[in-house]
Amino acid sequence: MTTKINLVVAHTLEARPLIKYLGLRQTATTPPLYVNEDGIRLIVSGEGQHCAWQAVNYLAELDGTAAIQAWLNIGIAGHQSMNIAQILLANKIVSRRSGEAVFPTLILPALQKFGELHTVDEPERQYPENVAYDMEAFAFFKAASAISTVELIHCFKIISDNKQNSVDTLIPARVKSLMESALGEIREVVAELQQLQGQVYQWQQSPPELEFFLDEVHLTVTQQTQLLRLCQRYYALGMKSELQKLTCSRILTSMDGRELIGRLQSKLAGPQ
Amino acid sequence: MFSAVYIEEAVRDQAQVKAILDRLPELPQISIDQYGELFNRNRQNFRMQKQLPSLILAHKTGRRILPAPSGYGFESTRNGRGYYFSHMLNCIYDCRYCFLQGMFRSANYVLFVNYEDFQNDIETTISKSPAGSVFYSGYDCDSLALEPVSRFCSFILPLFETHNEHILEIRTKSTQTRFLLEREPLPNCIVAMSFSPKRHSERWEHKVPSVEKRLESLVRLQQAGWPVALRFEPVIAEPNVQRLYQELFELVFTELDPSCLHSVSLGEFRLPVDFYKKMVRLYPQEPLLAKEMQSKSGMITMANHSESLIPELERALLAYIKPANYYRCA
């Protein structure tokens, strides 16, 4: 089991400052994919919900179920009233197309800047509600929440346009500087996600002896599940050394799955 | 205490909701259509959410007053019927043995704000029930722990003042009892405090007031004239547990007047199998859940303890209280 932080960014313009800041190197061009040594990956998804959906599924397929995946959609957004360069973490994402809403969990305490985000199919120029507008977040969240626990999925937006500063006046250099202005906060969110992910990793980590037993003894799928729980129980009950003793025992090589499970069970059967 | 307040659109303008929001001015407020879209969704991690839960203000539809499970309370000793209701889902405490961890997908707190509907339903149920029927509050939550925010018990108490032939049990581990001390006691409203031995409480009852603090609150209530009850559950079997309970009984009955207790109960640790499995997935390294268990008729109980444990504890308990005041919680 490994951990991965997946950053999904719609445009290369938005991605460039992040790639530099996080020390990411390119590993693929179609789609553009960047990674670093800390388990952070960045994919440039392209604009719109369909692209965001595809990018999430592409990344998920790279690891299958072998990784605890955290997800962060980063990008610029419009807003009716927020000032340019202000940031927000979405606490509610509404699809304008369907009216459906999804709710990222407010579990990242460092950044107390939350807001509602509406995902639209065309750039929003009227800003009818006092919310942020983007073009990817809803599909991103829906796709990621089919793969990962919802607490590890978030959307970070930097306000790039509002009623006074239309999206049509946005130039590439402005996008770059907006992204650069938020790098510190993005780093904070990534760090919090990594911390949460680390917790989940620790909770789900199998005792190392399990691998050893799986290599030494042939077990059915059911027996593998039983063995995992037995190893966890030995650790939980402070009987780790007994488990370790068994891995060193010659007797193990002559055991089949049933005998191994039976032996481990019998030692746990006494009062605890 | 909460990371945010989610509010069902349909209840947003209710006076109850406005009052609650006034008590939580700093929190982000998020509109939702129906609490289930948040609370019951897939792929949530209860354990992670428990670190920073949110409050959801919602309308309780469907049946609000339900028959109490057989053996849950003392109603059979009073020839009445037993009912329970939950104005909240989930608890601000984090007891490792608690079935709520296995029952709900989310650790967020749902507070049902249609208090008047609960009141009306209780009244309707009362009208169809024999005198001596008991209404248990605090089945899917702690009755009092969130009282400073919800004020639900303050709202519901006057109903039992006018229906004094029926009983309300407020089951809790909370010390939020000031509002009770500030009013006249009701002889038919029982504050039932749950206790475990100090060592168990320190190990498994996270965020719960200490045994001493709970006892202090209960003593104050008893002195003020409120009927109080003791719930020694769940009994978690382990070597020498009898000694731990002996110490607990001694402490509790030195402080409280046993002759004025409404009732005392003991109950074994037991959980539906599915809840237990989910709890194990959440806490695979938890020693309590790693103990040897046995499954019977869909319920998990602890294995390896003598059949005589509960009878032994009962004998120890009956040295302090009258048999008529005791019942075993099934």
3D architecture notes:
Chain A is of the alpha/beta class and 272 residues long. Chain A folds into two domains: 2-204, 3-Layer(aba) Sandwich (Rossmann fold), CATH 3.40.50; 208-268, no CATH class. Helix content of chain A is 41%, strand content 24%. Chain A contains nine helices and ten strands. Chain A has helices at residues 12-21, 49-63, 137-145, 172-181, 183-204, 208-216, 221-236, 240-248, 257-268; strands at 2-9, 25-29, 32-35, 40-44, 67-79, 87-95, 101-102, 114-119, 132-134, 153-161. A five-stranded mixed β-barrel of chain A has the order 5-9-8-6-10, surrounded by four helices. In chain A, strand 2 and strand 3 form a beta hairpin. In chain A, helix 1 (12-21) packs parallel to helix 4 and helix 2 (49-63) runs parallel beside helix 3. Chain A starts with a strand and ends with a helix. Chain B is an alpha/beta fold and 330 residues long. Chain B has one domain (61-87, 113-329): pyruvate-formate lyase- activating enzyme (Alpha-Beta Horseshoe), CATH 3.80.30.30. In chain B, 34% of the residues lie in helices and 22% in strands. Chain B has helices at 15-23, 36-39, 46-49, 100-103, 115-127, 147-150, 152-162, 178-181, 198-204, 211-224, 241-255, 273-282, 287-290, 309-318; strands at residues 5-8, 29-32, 55-58, 66-67, 82-85, 88-89, 94-95, 109-112, 134-137, 167-172, 189-195, 205-206, 228-235, 263-268, 270-272, 293-296, 299-302, 326-329. In chain B, the strands form four sheets. Chain B has an eight-stranded mixed beta sheet with strand order 4-5-9-10-11-13-14-18, covered by helices on one side. In chain B, a hairpin with a 2-residue loop joins strand 16 (293-296) and strand 17. In chain B, helix 5 (115-127) packs parallel to helix 7 (152-162) and helix 11 runs parallel beside helix 14 (309-318). The longest helix of chain B is centred in the last third of the chain and has 15 residues, at 241-255. Chain B starts with a strand and ends with a strand. The chains are: A alpha/beta (272), B alpha/beta (330).
